[in-house]
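ERR on first pass: missing label on line 2. Operator R.T. fixed the label and resubmitted. Corrected input:
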Amino acid sequence: MKYEAVIGLEIHVQLNAATKLFCDCPNRPGDEPNRNTCPVCLWLPGALPKLSREALEKASLACLALNCTIQPESAFDQKVYYYPDLPKGFQLSQHHKPLARNGWIDIVGEDEKIKRLRIHHIHMEEDVAKLVHEMEGRTPISLVDFNRAGTPLIEIVSEPDMRSPYDAMEYVKALRTQLRYTGSADCSMEQGTLRVDANISLRPFGTDELNTKVEVKNMNSIRNVGDAIAYEIVRQSECLDRGEPIVLHTRLWDPEKRVTMPMRGKFSGPCVPDPSVAMIVVTDDWLKDIRRRLPEMPGRKAERFSKEYGLTPDEASNMSQEREISEFFEESARQGIPPRKAASWITTHLVPALRDRDVTITETPLTSGRFARLLAILETGVINAHAAKEVLLQLLASDRSPDEIVETGKYRQVSDNSELEAIVDKILADHPSDVDDFRGGNAKVMGFLMGLAMKASGGKANPRLLKEIFTKRLG
Amino acid sequence: MKTAPDIFTYKNTSQQEPAKGGLLAGKRVAIQPNMCARGWLTDAGSRALEGFIALEDATVVARLRGAGAQLAGSARMGELGFGLKGDTGAQAVAAGEADIALFTDTMGEARVAAAAYGLFAFKASFGVISRFGLAGLVPSMESWGVVARGPEDIIAVMRAVAGKDGSDPSMPDEEPPDLSDIGSRPVKGRTAGVIKECLDGLGVEEMRLFQAGLERLEKADLTVKEVSLKDFGLFRAVHNVIGSVEASSSAGKYDGVRYGHRAASAKNWNEMYLNTRGESFGTLIKEYLFQGAYFQFEDYRAFENACRIRGRLVRGMAIAMENIDVLVLPTRRLAHDAAGASTVKETYDAFSLTLYANVAGQPSLHVPSFARGPEGDMGIQLTVPRLADARLLSVGMELSSTAQGAERK
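pass 2 clean. output:
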């Protein structure tokens, strides 16, 4: 039988607030173990939780960025279970009254049409401690690091609107783009600041049944999310074809073996309203203030870039996916360089260079002013594109001006005819058979000869003049 | 009568002089070992907190110190503050070891303990005193209770400790009661209402004592009227269900991982939990925690119903108090000894008349000697709407002279 997959995602995102959710401890789980702890996050007798305003604001920004409605009232519940990573026998989470409901996010579907994926709700919760299992001699021991206990999370629960691994991957990407824009979260799957759990069920094509689902956890990249879901769809299809029922359970993705394996059933306890954390009551003024802080989001920005700067839809999309890049592009374009040229240089040269160095623009000394100046020098013909790229790489490492780098690095392009003619003549003399070839009608040889001449000039030859000389000599 | 070593689980021997000239200058205050005082053993009367030393002062303790009180020590308390089994707070005052004893009043502990020793007791409105530093059990019901020989000391304590505290964000965002002019003018309203349903089930002798108490109130110029709150009997069930659920959650942190007793051996951490918790809690509190876990895991509907009924009871109280100034109830059942209660049922029997104030968050004042007979003092307690603490204490001031008159008879 042909099946259709019904997929919903539950995504935990760590907020990058400065402190934990209910105390003033730094939100830095990676520090030396148990350094960032206090009576509240260790839940010592007499401690009381104090909700972080910053975490609430960042969570609310995230909700708005995902088009959710912030609820007038939300409250924390105790999710009761006993585990050593939980210092008080329950996790504080918004079960009954979540912070926001009814959101959505658009992706471009496999059919290239816009597909709207709905978000059921977003709630806040605290993260739990980290367990480290070691051996002490021959005795296995478990160590608890409470640095992560109480750090602020939001959980984004989608509707089961996704139908394929592709949908799920695009949903995660789109959601990550939106959240990063707000500055509320770093959203790195590799570093665990964005964690995806997928609920997958199958149904015969053409029906709208909602069948028993299986939850899959432990994917640490977007690709793994797609692969795990694809694997699970095949596994469940085979089960159904064999006539085996699907049983509600949780499976772990094994990134080495690339399969999902059942995990031991985790006990899920009841949720009781917490009497100590004050209820969150949102006022209109406060909500207005949060809305004001929401930046122009990528979708709208891309439209504006097309209109204001004449970018193609692809260019506009590339220039708006990441907030830093979009701001850098716009600042550069405002300094008078042709916007499409700036976009093209950012995409083909700057972004790959940043990726190679594993840094963001703001982590380098490069400013939009110096970037614009470099492209302006390129426009004047003082340097060629090859040299400009070299200068750009240097701009990523030092705060010298492009003019200074061009001068001291001798990047100025050679536009002196006699110098270039000498180079061309020598190459023609050294490659008589290629010259014959060209004259015999093989136009491709020109590229080869140009390459040799460019190399001979140390990459500094003015390509336009070089071509003129070749054409004249071979003509 | 017990002597100091039996009364105190921790006796303060510090030579440090208290702050001078405060509201409580010269007063010796006994606290309980679930109230954090920096450097003191704070074990809440339970092996689950064995050896736990408080890292900082509770807000109340800090404010007491600031007001010049001398902290006498920590009296013994019922395990985790549930009931009065083993409690010595009121004894500390009766024996002259302290002038004032602080209680965790979760179901009426301060009032019922005071009744046994001829003392006054006050339970403040919910949310008026910071709970920061109180290792409590039932967060939505517990309040600080003050036991003393007369209302003056209670008022002084209230003035010193009540009011907003940034460390306790669970305190409602509202104006705290103005305690500044208590007793400076005569009380205006003088109508006392008796909830007739709260008398259901009292014995003949108990009825006689309470009637005598009401007559004394009338002699003190109060008009006594009967009012009705049909659901009064539900306070107990609501307290039991919500209280045990909250207790089960609150005690979840006592797992032996970070402090307190930990079982000597276990094969894995589940067994470590089971052994540790099994060894840590006494039978009475265990029974209560089991009840709470039952409602959490097996009958959550009962908990939801209790929460809904609680709202109805709060409204019912407001209606019952519409045309009267104070409500008056007996404080305790003479047939049910709180100190001897060793099951949850027996404990609830002993507090059946006081726990309404914890469910509804109202202030309540126990006045001794008004309803005393050969079997002991049943006591009367007065209550007013939440946040009307100042008015209640003013009535208390007026009655205290009457009470002293009754004492001499």
